[in-house]
Amino acid sequence: MARIILADDDPGMRDVFHLIFKRAGHEATIYANGELLMENNYPLPDLFILDKQLSGINGLEVCRFLKSQDRSKNIPVIIISASPYVKQNVDASGADDFIEKPFKTKDLILLLGKHLSKNGAG
Amino acid sequence: MSDSNNLVQLVNDLKVANSELMEARRAALNMMEDAIQSKEALRKSEEKYRLKLEQEVRERTTEIKEQSHYIKRVTETVPDMISVTDLVKGEFKYLNTEVFKAQGFDPVKMKKNNRDGPDKYVHPDDRHLIVDYFQKFPTASDDEVITAEYRAQDDAGVWKWLLVRGRPFQRSDDGVVTHVLNIIENITERKTAEQEVLRLKDEVAQKATDKYRKLYNAIDEGFCLLEVIYNTLGKAVDMRFLDVNPAFKKQTGVQVEIGQTFLNYHPLLEMVTFEWCETVVQNGLPVRFTGFSKAKGRWYEYHAVRLGNREDKQVALLFNDITEYKRNEQNQEILAAISQELITLNSAEEIFQRLGEKIGSYFQVVHCMLYELTENGEFVSTSIGWNAKGSRTLFGTYRIGDFLSDQQLASCVKGETVIVRDTSIDDPETAENFAALEVRSFIVIPLLRDNRWRFLISILDTIPRQWRKDEINLIGEIAHRIWMRLERARAEEALRISEAKLKATMDSATEYAIIATSTEGIVELWSTGAEKMFGYTPEEITGKSADIIFTPEDRENNVPFKEMETASKTGKANDERWHLEKDGTRFFASGVMAPIYDATLTGFVKVARDITQRKLLEQQKDDFIAVASHELKTPVTSIKAYTELLMEILQEEGYGDNMQLVGKLDAQVDRLTELIRSLLDTTRISEGELALNIQEFDLNALITERIDELKFTSDIHRLVFNTSDTLHIQADKERIGQVLVNLISNAIKYSPKGGDITIAASTLKEGVQVSIHDTGLGISADLINKIFDRFYRARTAQIETFPGMGLGLYIAAAIISRHKGRLWVDSQPKKGSTFYFFLPYR
């Protein structure tokens, strides 16, 4: 079981992620925006999942912040985006991986597994 | 010579002795007279004085005898013959006989000859010299030496040259010379030597003369040697021929006799003036000059050189016929003059008004005309040309067949010059017609336009003419230049009209900006449309760089230059970009730039249209699609996740029977996903943003993979792909897969009755080719070019509409195009289609 923090401004997506993580046995904290993640007053997870297009501060900026902080810089960040150019954006922000919408649940679970096992969690 | 001096001394001595003797005689005689007059005294002293006298006479005589002997001895020892001539008796008083003998002259014979007729042994030609010689003595002084050189024949009959030097020897009481002493030297050897020298000199001179004569005879130039004849006032009045060479006659046409003078040969007088020759004689400087002989109708160049001294009055004259050269020179001059004048003349009327007379008089003809052929070629007519004063005019219309034979007409059609030397012997049928026009000879130069005979220039004369080759060439050249000028004027006029039309067209096309620039992009032409579009007036922008209509970003990126470069390299540069108006407003324009060539690149022309409105609409549409599809992706992702979760839950909870329904739901979600992706791709293609991710992969494996995904979508189709090989290519694997899915899906979709879909991949020389063949509905010919358009979808009356937005082929074609490949189709309605795509090796 891993602890995952996810930020997505779409309620549908938040609901779906909740279901997916629950079924996969992960403990997920889900936010509707990224502002809270810019404050260093929450317990760190094993992995972050950020929607690229968050209302307010976008996911890439949140990612850049996390990667700039000593406490969070080694925690994997996965970006979710509907944009086909997500790869370039992700590379610039320092994110560890990305997944393009729409995706197969199976593929998302595989991607999580890949990064969690890398860090010895999960 | 010293011998001669000795002799003279001796002679003087003799004279002294002689006068002493005479004195003695006179004294004796006086004494005898005295004795007679005083007989007494005489008688007394007679005996005494007689004895004394006799004694004296005896002594004197002995003395004289001794002296005479001495003289004789001396004179006989000198080499020269010495004689004393008694001028009164005309005989020799003394000869040194031995010397005479030794020289071959017998003194006895000579004395005899001399008595018979003086100097018979002297050469008849020289006798007058001897006569002259003796005639000089009677009045000569004692010191005077008189000489003569003459020939004399010795006893053996041999002619000898003698030099006689004579001096008075004895005078009569009244002082007249009565005797002459002659000293005669044999100078035969010297004379012979002299003559030999002279002979040799002559021989050498002769040889040299022969050599030069050969040269004179051989040269083409006429040569004559003249002696200038002066009148009593010292003025040159004529010249005598001393010599001429054979070429002289050839050059001048005059047969000259040596010894005759110029005044006997009238034609020559025209060419050479005595003054010229006299000048040459006077100052000795060679002179070169040219002259024209009217009688001969030819030009000559003369070269006059003095021979010898001024006193010799001789001039060598070289003639050279330079007519051909001179004509050529004159022809070139008139041609140059005509060409020069032509520059400023624009119409045929002007040209013939200004040049007709010049040409006519140069050729010494009566007419110089320009005729135009009628459309049907049957007639020629004109009101342009020159007719000499007093001649009939040749304006009007003539049936050309009445004047030119079929053969001549055929020549004209080919552009060949027609030359007639005498109309009356040329063609009996046309001769009469020419006679009516008083034309006896002419040259016609046909003028062709686009290989069709349209005009002719002709010079005509009232008399038969032996047209010279240079005249024919010259009139041909003149006609050619006139024609070039006329054609050029015509082209200029056409150009002017065309330019006016172009300007009118340009100015009326206010929706388009038309801009012409130099090769450096400097504005040369700015249409009304350009003014309207960009806000600059032609005055403001002409001569300035066209760069200012580009945005600063484009200028930064050197876009204006790149555009010209592309245009000059490929012949055209299309572009759609933002431009700047004078006031800074941006607008979007679609333009085409093309290079302008006039042998070399001379500039560019750009036509642009303001498509800002269209661009904005397209932009809005694309933005809408992009945003919409982007926004759609999120709910679709949720739906897909729910569906998958639902499937898992149903599976877990044993509701497997309902799985099929959820599976169908999932498939529809996938279709929806695909549609959204297509829409996004479309907007990206229109934005030029379709990026490729090139990698190496096995095309055959990709095809197999995609077939595996698709084969469950239809029960009635069979996807056939037979291969066991690998086929590695470099391309965007995902995008090529997308193309394959699109083409195979289409094949399934448009074969509603099912059947085989055959897929094949093959390696060609320059790339790989993939084909997807179906046996379905096919595509009619009128639609086949539209199926690759955006949003196009095959719809026919017979078939139902098929699902989809008609973006598939548009995207597939764009993907293949981005790979620099090609996508195309062969199709027959109701029989099926084969789609091909070709990917070049990278």
Annotation, overall tally of beta strands of chain A: 5
Shape label of chain A:
globular
Oligomer: heterodimer
Enumerate the spans of chain B where pLDDT stays under 50 for 5 or more consecutive residues: 794-801
Helix content of chain A: 25-40%
Evaluate the radius of gyration of chain A: 13 Å
Provide a count of the helices of chain A.
4
Uncertain segments of chain A of ≥5 residues (pLDDT<50)?
none
Strand portion of chain B: 25-35%
Count of helical stretches of chain B: 24
Biggest sheet layout of chain B = 6 strands, antiparallel
SSE succession of chain A: EHEEHEHEH
Structural class of chain A: alpha/beta
Mean pLDDT of chain B: 84
Residues in helices of chain B, as a percent range: 40-55%
Q: How many beta-strand elements of chain B? A: 28
Termini Cα gap of chain A: 5 Å
Mean pLDDT of chain A: 87
> How are strands sequenced across the largest beta sheet of chain B?
13-12-11-16-15-14
Instruction: Label the structural class of chain B.
Output: alpha+beta
Can I get a quick summary?
The complex is a heterodimer of chains A (122) and B (842). By secondary structure, chain A is an alpha/beta fold. In chain A, 38% of the residues lie in helices and 20% in strands.
Report on this model:
The complex is a heterodimer of chains A (122) and B (842). Chain A is of the alpha/beta class. Chain A contains 4 helices and 5 strands. Chain A has helices at residues 11-24, 59-68, 86-93, 105-118; strands spanning 3-7, 27-31, 47-51, 77-81, 97-100. Chain A has a 5-stranded parallel β-sheet, sandwiched between helices. The N and C termini of chain A lie close together (5 Å). The model of chain A has no long low-confidence stretch (mean pLDDT 87). Chain B is α+β, with helices and mostly antiparallel strands. Helix content of chain B is 46%, strand content 26%. Chain B contains 24 helices and 28 strands. In chain B, the strands form 6 sheets. A 6-stranded antiparallel β-sheet of chain B has the order 13-12-11-16-15-14. The two termini of chain B are 125 Å apart. In chain B, 27% of the residues are buried. Mean pLDDT of chain B is 84; it is low at 794-801. At the A-B interface, helix 1 of A face helix 20 and helix 21 of B.
